[in-house]
């Protein structure tokens, strides 16, 4: 039987955090709409087409139309309407920004659009390094806080630090570890409280579904402080071959990001964030994950052990058996 409870809309629902939020919501039986420009690799009836730069994709979401509706006939739509109850209005939305320094504009426009269609709660994924009022998500953070202070929305902002998954899923890290046995950064010996995307998702699910909204920001940090040198040492032990951390200048890292397809302005911002780490910008921890979810946050080594095959394939293909 199809649930008629109010669904949660997860923007960027096929991404690193969004896909995990959608999975956790589904496991709890909470109706979920997965929104993205490209559909998931497998068929998902709950997927809706969404593009920050195309407002024409916004309205159909609130009319209960999925991305697959475009290819159905009028007779099929009529049969569906007879067999399924009418969905309830969306009341909670998880916001993930587009990779653009001007992405705050469409995000704020979309928030107002969604409010006009009855959405009550907005949970924004920002970043530990971006304060309210800062660039991109910082401006959206400030806007949600202002609306919340006026009692116009329920809101929350998650400010996670650097993801553990970056090391295995971002091509710039994954490929250099596989083919060069190197990992590059501009952080020198700066430490980071690497956080699991699974833990971010768990905090997000609470923020989206709890009876009371956070109406505040949560800094979402991992349980231990690790530098890139320490990450390299850990990977050396796990993979059985020497992994070296190569420290780059901010300009060198920016060029590296652009070679892997990152837009130039966004690469410059990401490089500046990494450079700030060497001066202690991420040298902090907290207990937000445990206090919100009741579960201890995941450690980097456990994650690395679970995905170590992604770093071994290239050397195996080359017929090289590396030893530390």
Structure, described:
The protein is of the alpha/beta class and 324 residues long. It folds into 2 domains: 8-160, Rossmann fold (3-Layer(aba) Sandwich), CATH 3.40.50; 165-194 and 223-283 and 299-324, Alpha-Beta Complex (UDP-galactose 4-epimerase, domain 1), CATH 3.90.25.10. Helix content is 42%, strand content 14%. It is built from 14 helices and 11 strands. It has helices at 18-27, 59-62, 74-83, 104-115, 137-149, 166-169, 171-180, 197-209, 228-239, 250-259, 264-277, 288-293, 300-306, 309-318; strands at residues 8-11, 32-36, 47-49, 92-96, 121-125, 154-160, 182-185, 191-192, 217-220, 226-227, 244-247. The strands form 3 sheets. The chain has a 7-stranded parallel beta sheet, sandwiched between helices. A two-stranded parallel sheet has the order 7-11. Strand 1, helix 1 and strand 2 (32-36) form a beta-alpha-beta unit. The radius of gyration is 21 Å and the shape is globular. Residues 67-86 have low confidence and may be disordered. Residues 66-89 are annotated as: Disordered. GO terms for molecular function: oxidoreductase activity. Pathway: Alkaloid biosynthesis; ergot alkaloid biosynthesis. This is NAD(P)-binding domain-containing protein.
């Amino acid at each position: 039987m199809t649930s008629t409870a109010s669904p949660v809309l997860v923007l960027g629902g096929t991404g690193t955090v969004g896909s995990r939020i959608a999975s956790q919501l589904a496991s709890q039986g909470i109706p979920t709409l997965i929104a993205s420009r490209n559909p998931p690799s497998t068929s998902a009836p709950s997927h809706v087409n969404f593009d920050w730069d195309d407002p024409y994709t916004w309205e159909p979401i609130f009319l209960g139309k999925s991305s697959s509706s475009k290819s159905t006939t009028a007779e099929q739509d009529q049969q569906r309407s007879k067999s399924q109850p009418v969905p309830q209005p969306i009341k909670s939305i998880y916001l993930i920004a587009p990779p653009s320094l001007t992405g705050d504009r469409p995000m704020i426009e979309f928030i107002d659009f969604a409010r006009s269609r009855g959405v009550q709660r907005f949970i924004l994924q920002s970043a530990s390094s971006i304060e309210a009022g800062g660039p991109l998500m910082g401006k959206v953070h400030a806007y949600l806080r202002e609306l919340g202070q006026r009692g116009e929305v329920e809101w929350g902002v998650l400010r996670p630090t650097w993801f553990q998954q970056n090391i295995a899923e971002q091509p710039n890290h994954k490929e250099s570890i596989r083919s060069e046995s190197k990992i590059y950064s501009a952080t020198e010996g700066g430490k980071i409280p690497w956080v699991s995307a699974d833990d971010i998702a768990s905090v997000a699910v609470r923020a989206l579904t709890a009876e009371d909204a956070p109406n505040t920001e949560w800094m979402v940090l991992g349980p231990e402080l690790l530098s890139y040198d320490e990450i390299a040492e850990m990977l050396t032990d796990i993979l059985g071959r020497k992994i070296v951390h190569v420290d780059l200048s901010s300009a060198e890292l920016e060029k590296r990001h652009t070679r892997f397809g990152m837009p130039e302005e966004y690469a410059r911002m990401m490089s500046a964030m990494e450079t700030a780490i060497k001066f202690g910008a991420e040298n902090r921890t907290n207990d937000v994950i445990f206090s919100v979810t009741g579960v201890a946050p995941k450690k980097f080594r456990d994650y690395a052990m679970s995905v170590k095959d992604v770093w071994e394939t290239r050397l195996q293909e080359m017929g090289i058996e590396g030893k530390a």
